[in-house]
DNA sequence: ATTCGTGCAAAGGGTTTGCATTGTT
DNA sequence: AACAATGCAAACCCTTTGCACGAAT
């Protein structure tokens, strides 16, 4: 059967995730874990995070061309607002999501994670000029 | 001011998006557009898609390590179910999203796109074994 | 003792970007 | 004529992977 070993690396990554209230990416987590476990590699961090996501312990927030951000899944069911410009991620308390019409899901679809994401522009970024094309 | 030029490339990409009911990635769109405009480059496809997303004409579905999928935004407000294993994307009709508590958003946050995504496993993938770690 | 997990480093793949050129306005 | 958009190809960055070694069970 599946043997998930309780390694120091796994514990350390989980601990960092647990005690972090921001939404860090793998590199940030790697640096943080290094403080307790200097020799841990980035590859192991990725592998551990993958496992945590598979196990439902963590969820991801993904943006094209950006590093995946990880979020420890607490009992509160919160969701996210994501700033398109600066990438800031805000937690939003939403309790109504379970009411959403899952009946519309394709037959037999097994839901592992419901994501409600508001994408847009945070207050601080609304006045900033577009980080536009080649011209600059 | 913003000068969005109406180039052949832009029209062709838009046309492909408009007439495609699946959720293609940039490479697929590139190949499709090539049939009408053989010389178009992948870079231009990316730039055009970015612009269409900025303009709200298209939306993205993003998965870590996977190519971004694009979806032409029709008037119906549908959302997506994403299979974690095979990457299949299913459309879901959901009309209740506007009722969701935007009041919980951070002050001044300007919403450009509301995404409701059900991540999990489609029927066809539920029996498949895990594509697990290094061991195979 | 077994075998999964790790570290390392290279490879992989999607996306972006600089620059000269083309083509819209 | 002006300058945004394109094509090309290299660069970027995040993520994955092969392999030999180390460590948990």
From TrEMBL, chains A, B:
Gene Ontology BP terms: negative regulation of DNA-templated transcription; regulation of secondary metabolite biosynthetic process
Q: Where does Fe cation bind?
A: 77
Which terms does the record give in the GO molecular function aspect? DNA-binding transcription factor activity; transcription cis-regulatory region binding; zinc ion binding
Q: Where are the transmembrane segments?
A: none
Question: Which protein are we looking at?
Answer: Transcriptional repressor
Q: Which family does it belong to?
A: Belongs to the Fur family.
Keyword vocabulary terms for this entry: DNA-binding, Iron, Metal-binding, Repressor, Transcription, Transcription regulation, Zinc
Q: What does the entry's cofactor note say about binding and number?
A: Binds 1 zinc ion per subunit. Binds 1 Mn(2+) or Fe(2+) ion per subunit.
UniProt: Zn(2+) binding residues: 83, 86, 122, 125
**What cofactors does the UniProt entry give for this protein?**
Zn(2+); Mn(2+); Fe(2+)
Tell me yes or no: is S-adenosyl-L-methionine among this UniProt entry's keywords. no
Q: Does the keyword DNA-binding apply?
A: yes
């Amino acid at each position: 059967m599946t043997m998930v070993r309780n390694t120091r690396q796994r514990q350390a990554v989980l601990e960092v995730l647990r005690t972090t209230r921001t939404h860090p990416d793998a590199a940030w987590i790697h640096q943080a874990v290094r403080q307790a476990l200097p020799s841990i590699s980035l590859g192991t961090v990725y592998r551990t995070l993958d496992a945590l996501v598979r196990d439902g312990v963590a969820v991801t927030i993904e943006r094209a061309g950006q590093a995946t951000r990880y979020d420890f899944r607490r009992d509160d069911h919160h969701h996210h607002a994501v700033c398109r410009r600066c990438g800031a991620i805000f937690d939003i308390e939403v309790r109504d999501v379970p009411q959403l019409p899952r009946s519309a899901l394709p037959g037999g679809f097994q839901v592992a994670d419901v994501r409600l994401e508001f994408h847009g522009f945070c207050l601080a970024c609304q006045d900033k000029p577009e980080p536009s094309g080649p011209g600059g």
